[in-house]
Model the fold of this input.
Amino acid sequence: MRQLILEKVQAKQFQALTAVEDKILRKMREKEAEVEAINKKNVDLEDQIKQLAMDVAAWQQRANWPGDIPNITPGFSRLIMPPSARTSGQAVKLPPKKINIPYEKR
Done:
């Protein structure tokens, strides 16, 4: 009789441990799925950063290109400077350029 009670208690303990183990395994699988989703999102964001960095470089190159023209053509400054500035030796300050960069939603 005592042996029978001991076996029942052990069986109940085994069932409880199995249930706890199942819950822990289920939670671990959920967390692993979350980590995979986060890693995938991270890879996507890194790709977006790389693309945006290339876009920025392209826009900077486009923005700097007109500034390179005076270096390419030495007589260019004579064309844009008024005669009074050429004779006085003073540099002419041009207003800053406004560059409209279109926003593309991805």
Residues 49 and 55 are 10 Å apart (CA to CA). The helical segments are 2-72, 76-80, 83-88.
